[in-house]
Amino acid sequence: MIIELSHRITEGMTTYPGIPGPVLGTHLSREDSREVYAEGTEFHIGTITLTANTGTYLDTPYHRYAEGPDLSQLPIERMADLPGLVVRAEGRPSVGLDLLRELDVRGRAVLLHTGWDRHFGTDAYLRDHPFLEPEAAAWLAEQGAALVGIDSLNIDATPPKGERPAHTLLLAAGIPLVEHLTGLARLPVSGFRFHAAPPMIAGLGTFPVRAYAVVRAA
Prior knowledge:
Blueprint: E1 2-4, E2 23-28, H1 30-33, E3 45-49, E4 57-59, E5 82-88, E6 94-95, E7 109-113, E8 131-132, H2 134-143, E9 147-150, H3 165-172, E10 177-179, E11 192-195, E12 206-208, E13 212-215
Parallel strand pairs: 5-7, 6-8, 7-9, 9-10
Antiparallel strand pairs: 1-13, 2-3, 4-10, 4-12, 5-11, 11-13
C-alpha cells in the first residue's frame, strides 16, 4: 500500500510566513498548440515560479552550510527507499529526547508525527507549532538517523531571529530534513519504506518533494 505524505502545491499557497506563493502560468496553451501539431493533436506546457521552500520539501546540508552537498550532490540513498520509523508526539509542544532514547533510529527515516498538519493552510499553522528539541536533534545525529521529517511548520522553533539548532546539528551530520509532511497518522510505527527525492538541481539546498510511504502487507 502506498500512502501519500505531501501537501498539494496550489497557486498562491502559503507555506511559511514571508515566503511568496507559487505562480502558475502557460508556456504553450492547448489552443496555440493546434498550430504546431497535426490536426487533432494538442498539448499543454505549463510554467511555475516558486520558492524552493514550498509545500512539502526536503532540506539538504547546502541549505545551512555553503560547503554542504546540494540537491544534485546528496546521494539518492539518503532520500529514497529508507526504512521508516514514526515517533508519535501528538498534543506535545515539542519532541524531546524522552520519546526517542529507547528507539533504534540508525539508518532510518525518523518521522515526527505531531498532528500539526491538520492546521495546514490556516493562520494557526503558522504559529506556536511543535518542533524538535535541540537535545533530541543532537541524539538523532549521534545515533545515525538517515533522514528526519516533521509534519509542522518547521523542525525548529521559529522565534524572530532565533537560532535553528535542529537544522544546524542534523544538516552538519549530513542528515536531510523533510518539513511540512502530512498524513503520518495513517502510517504504522514501523514496517514501511519512505521516499522523498527532489530533482537534481545544482546550487539549490531545498526543493519540494512527493513524499510517500510504501507499507508492506501484514
